[in-house]
Amino acid sequence: MSIASILAFFFVYYVLAGLAINLGYHRVLAHRSLKLPKWLERTLVTLGLPTGTPVQWVGNHRYHHAHTDTPLDPHSPLQRGFWYAHVGWYLGSDNVFLCVLYSLAGPFRLLIDAWMRPRTNQEFSSLAPDVSADPWYRLISRPWPYAAAMHLHFLVPVLAAWYLWGIRGCAIVWLTLVALYNMGDAIDSIAHMFGNQLSGQHDRSRNSFVMGLLILGEGWHANHHRFPWSAKHGLARGQFDWTWQVIRVLRAVGLAREIRIPTAPDFAGPTAVSGTTHLSRN
């Protein structure tokens, strides 16, 4: 097993999963920042299923935006501490030992979540009626279909890695999933603790160059909380947004449309968090 093959596996897995969550779950489903063909949207969301059921994830995320860093926020480190915001809210526990074990579980976290995620944190699912109206998302958000999908997410990479590289390949899958999960979880924890805030900001979300690079553009988190509906998170010079570059490519080939990004008046006016639609060809 060469270093090049390890890096290639890690890169492809990480980027595909990251785009599935950032683009499919977050910017398309949760915020309707752009539209993709239904086949592409559903493919991305299906690839991103380890992040949670579509209906629950979107409902919870919308509630988070409505109550960011207040006592009502489902996962604010300011309210319940780092580990609860990082992974404890999935488990309903702020026990540090349990949270650390879960965060390091790698592929076994897929099997834990196969049972847990369709049954827990469901109290805000009513905030995602548009997602539950889709027959595929409604089906895959149910316990047994979701469990079946998660077992496939476990078996396919593990068996492929075992066939290609043996036990060392399984170790690479483990490390890849630990990195991927914890980078995603860091948006709920680290991205509300470390980095730069915006002037006049009412919550504690932060912008971070390092997080922006590692999480494919999601680390420009203060920008996102100011303009939740924006398909572009890196809004200033030097704020590179990997996911936005993919959106630009999809637009160029006719697969992305109705893309919403802030225009000049938004940065000075009250529409920053209003959800006003702005279409742009930039």
Can you give a write-up of this model?
58% of the residues lie in helices and 0% in strands. With 282 residues, the chain is mostly helical. The protein has helices spanning 3-30, 38-47, 54-66, 77-80, 82-91, 96-103, 107-116, 129-132, 135-140, 143-165, 167-186, 209-214, 221-226, 242-252, 264-268. The protein is built from 15 helices and no strands. Residues 271-282 have low confidence and may be disordered.
Summarize the structure.
The chain is an all-alpha fold and 282 residues long. It has helices at 3-30, 38-47, 54-66, 77-80, 82-91, 96-103, 107-116, 129-132, 135-140, 143-165, 167-186, 209-214, 221-226, 242-252, 264-268.
Question: Which key features would you list for this structure?
Answer:
single chain; mainly alpha; 15 helices; 58% helix; disordered C terminus
What is the distance, rounded to the nearest whole angstrom, between the alpha carbons of the first and last residues?
Answer: 43 Å
Radius of gyration: 18 Å
Largest sheet: none
Contiguous runs where pLDDT drops below 50 for at least 5 residues = 271-282
The number of helical elements comes to: 15
Compute the average pLDDT.
92
Structural class, judged by helices and strands?
A: mainly alpha
- Name the helicity range: 55-70%
Shape: globular
The fraction of residues assigned to DSSP E strands is under 5%
Number of strands: 0
Return the string of H and E elements: HHHHHHHHHHHHHHH
